[in-house]
Amino acid sequence: LAKTTQPISMDSYEGQEVNITCSHNNIATNDYITWYQQFPSQGPRFIIQGYKTKVTNEVASLFIPADRKSSTLSLPRVSLSDTAVYYCLVGDDYGGSQGNLIFGKGTKLSVKP
Amino acid sequence: DSGVTQTPKHLITATGQRVTLRCSPRSGDLSVYWYQQSLDQGLQFLIQYYNGEERAKGNILERFSAQQFPDLHSELNLSSLELGDSALYFCASSEGSPGMNEKLFFGSGTQLSVL
């Protein structure tokens, strides 16, 4: 299983750019990198997914270096409503025979005014 | 709105009892997943169904069981409940091509309180 390591918590202020880095040293060739966001008492919500280089959508950017052993979720100009837990998942199958897409404890981002 | 519907939203019961949690996946999704989230814990994968068949089991207790019906809705049955079973139970669905990388869509969860 491709294990991921991400900071337990991060603090930021409104308007700042936040970068959350996830380490996944034993990522496999078929593995994708996926990030989810979870607000208290709600189910996680898909944010972004990538395989290599850079992916950008209306919510965030995902930077993946050539060796793919880490990835960085970038949230531009955060607001108070971005306060949530962010999960980094690495794998290609949530269940299946390997079930290698595992939600860890995530990174708790606190955005302050 | 993710399109995944879970009922009930809240459930309060006593130890030793049995409850059933229900999940309706997004229209067209074939895979259903169940997760448990306790206070200060990450999401624990319990079980996955694909088109009516069990596809994978995670850390699901023997007291728990699930099934996916022909209309693709799923039920999670929890029996002989213990205090430690108190948690948020999430259902998620995906398009469900086995082995393909996918995005999960989560319901809003069922908060189970065992007293």
Could you walk me through the main structural features you see in this protein, from its secondary elements to its overall organization?
- The complex is a heterodimer of chains A (113) and B (115).
- With 113 residues, chain A is mainly β.
- Chain A is built from no helices and nine strands.
- A five-stranded mixed β-sheet of chain A has the order 1-9-8-3-4, with no helix packed on it. In chain A, strands 2-7-6-5 form a four-stranded antiparallel β-sheet, with no helix packed on it.
- Chain A is globular.
- Chain A starts with 8 loop residues before the first strand and ends with a strand.
- The model of chain A has no long low-confidence stretch (mean pLDDT 89).
- Chain B has 115 residues and is an all-beta fold.
- Chain B is globular.
- Chain B is 0% helix and 50% strand.
- In chain B, strands 2, 4, 5, 6, 9, 10 and 11 form a seven-stranded mixed β-sheet that branches. A four-stranded antiparallel β-sheet of chain B has the order 1-3-8-7, with no helix packed on it.
- Chains A and B meet through strand 3 and strand 4 of A and strand 4, strand 5, strand 9 and strand 10 of B.
Relevant terms:
heterodimer, A: 113 residues, mainly beta, five-stranded mixed β-sheet, four-stranded antiparallel β-sheet, 9 strands, B: 115 residues, seven-stranded mixed β-sheet, 0% helix, 50% strand, globular
Provide the fold topology.
The complex is a heterodimer of chains A (113) and B (115).
Chain A: E1 9-13, E2 18-23, E3 32-38, E4 45-50, E5 53-56, E6 61-64, E7 70-75, E8 84-91, E9 107-112
Parallel strand pairs in A: 1-9
Antiparallel strand pairs in A: 2-7, 3-4, 3-8, 5-6, 6-7, 8-9
Chain B: E1 5-7, E2 10-13, E3 19-24, E4 31-37, E5 43-50, E6 53-57, E7 64-68, E8 74-78, E9 87-94, E10 105-106, E11 110-114
Parallel strand pairs in B: 2-11
Antiparallel strand pairs in B: 1-3, 3-8, 4-5, 4-9, 5-6, 7-8, 9-10, 9-11
